[in-house]
Specification:
single chain; 116 residues; mainly beta; three-stranded antiparallel sheet; 35% strand
């Protein structure tokens, strides 16, 4: 399983979402994403042997472009990604220990200890 460390230019691969690896080489990995396979440089992803149980906390850089800014879809600067369905969740001002996905109803802790 692989998660992008930062949002690439491709619309199909999202930061914090976990995807199965179809194959890997010396410098690239090919991911199984909705819509087809996508190849990424190995340094752009984090690799794990199994899908994580915890929600991934994603921090948008302070001056990073936010395409949803000012709309109801705006997730803010820090949001969580569901490990089961890859949905993004807006977090309240006081970050919770656990969250529940609105889409698939999965409930688990947010992996705050993994954020840098």
């Amino acid at each position: 399983w692989v998660a992008a460390k930062r949002e690439p230019d491709w619309n199909t691969v999202r930061e914090g979402a976990w995807y199965p690896v179809l194959r890997g080489g010396a410098t690239r990995v090919v991911l199984d994403v909705p819509g087809g396979a996508v190849a990424l440089p190995k340094e752009a992803v984090e690799t794990r042997p199994t899908r994580p149980r915890h929600f991934t906390a994603v921090y948008r850089a302070q001056f990073e472009y936010n395409p949803a800014e000012g709309t109801k879809e705006d997730l803010g600067r820090v949001y969580a990604v569901c490990p089961q369905c890859a949905s993004r969740l807006k977090l309240p001002p006081v970050p919770p220990v656990t969250v529940r996905c609105r889409k698939c109803r999965y409930e688990e802790a947010v992996a705050w200890w993994e954020t840098g």
